[in-house]
Amino acid sequence: MRFLLRRLALLLAALFGMSVLIFLALRILPGDVASVMAGLNATPARVARLRQELGLNRSYLQQYFEWAGNVVHGNLGISVLTGRDVGVQIVSRMQITFPLILIGLLIACLIGIPLGAASIVARSARVRQSLHLLALTGGAIPALWGAMLLILLFSKGSGLIALFPSQGFPDAGWAQAGSALASLMLPAVTVGIIVGSSIMRYTRSALQEMLSSEFVDMGMACGMTRVQAVLRIGLRVVSPQLVSVIGLTFAEMITGVMVIENLFALPGIGSMLVTDVGNRDLLTVQSELFVLAAFFLCIGFVVDVLHRVLDPRLKGAGLLATAGGAQ
């Protein structure tokens, strides 16, 4: 309980610091939303009047506390360019981005963990080397190039084997579950291959250290083969580290899928953020960035708690030791 309270306090402090950082970072950028709304030929007086109407002429302190207070009460604001509720837009876009990330991460785990373990326990040295090379090659594939290759191979219309659509998302959303799922398959496989290579390398590295550990030796002393000891004991011992890596990878994928969403014309939160940054809708962008940062920090909090639950050795350790282990 003491650990949870201290970790929760650290999370709240990080959220406060992140909100201040995002607010100040967007204020030092050249240009503002008033200039965009007024247009290129607007007079300085017109821009100044708009700034006053939008409240941009007030002190930064007043603007920050008003924004932060609204966020605390669940109000992420209204876009001054589109007039739409920012919170509603984010929730709508997350219905595309989150399933994409979850499917991509599932594919990555199905690729990374079994192949990473196989690269250690395979009897043939040639197979082990081939899997190691596969992990290195997969991680080096640029997302853009990998996505283009999958489109040429499996997309409807231009692919050699027409299986999945390569552009867009159904207007009815998840009401057309089959079409929605099909539209996410190629982007998810692209993400899954790249992320899966990283998980595969980490699994291989973690299990390689287990080969010479006392855990595997004790398993073999109890009658297990080396392969059984690595898979049954070694994989269980490294599971807290794998959970940390997968959890933080999940959080990083929130922003990592921006390129994929734009390439496959998916109206997710990544494409929304890119569009709003281009339009200089700073009030919307700061709420979007804060939601993404808060999500990242919350995932780190969950990972730290899971890491502590799965690894009994950390029960007597302090907060910093746990955080360091999660990294």
TrEMBL record:
<dbReference type="GO" id="GO:0071916">
    <property type="term" value="F:dipeptide transmembrane transporter activity"/>
</dbReference>
<dbReference type="GO" id="GO:0005886">
    <property type="term" value="C:plasma membrane"/>
</dbReference>
<dbReference type="InterPro" id="IPR035906">
    <property type="entry name" value="MetI-like_sf"/>
</dbReference>
<feature type="transmembrane region" description="Helical">
    <location>
        <begin position="96"/>
        <end position="121"/>
    </location>
</feature>
<protein>
    <submittedName>
        <fullName>ABC transporter permease</fullName>
    </submittedName>
</protein>
<dbReference type="Pfam" id="PF19300">
    <property type="entry name" value="BPD_transp_1_N"/>
</dbReference>
<keyword id="KW-0472">Membrane</keyword>
<dbReference type="InterPro" id="IPR045621">
    <property type="entry name" value="BPD_transp_1_N"/>
</dbReference>
<comment type="similarity">
    <text>Belongs to the binding-protein-dependent transport system permease family.</text>
</comment>
<feature type="transmembrane region" description="Helical">
    <location>
        <begin position="174"/>
        <end position="195"/>
    </location>
</feature>
<feature type="transmembrane region" description="Helical">
    <location>
        <begin position="289"/>
        <end position="306"/>
    </location>
</feature>
<dbReference type="Pfam" id="PF00528">
    <property type="entry name" value="BPD_transp_1"/>
</dbReference>
<dbReference type="InterPro" id="IPR000515">
    <property type="entry name" value="MetI-like"/>
</dbReference>
<keyword id="KW-0812">Transmembrane</keyword>
<feature type="domain" description="ABC transmembrane type-1">
    <location>
        <begin position="94"/>
        <end position="307"/>
    </location>
</feature>
<keyword id="KW-1133">Transmembrane helix</keyword>
<keyword id="KW-0813">Transport</keyword>
<keyword id="KW-1003">Cell membrane</keyword>
<feature type="transmembrane region" description="Helical">
    <location>
        <begin position="242"/>
        <end position="269"/>
    </location>
</feature>
<feature type="transmembrane region" description="Helical">
    <location>
        <begin position="133"/>
        <end position="154"/>
    </location>
</feature>
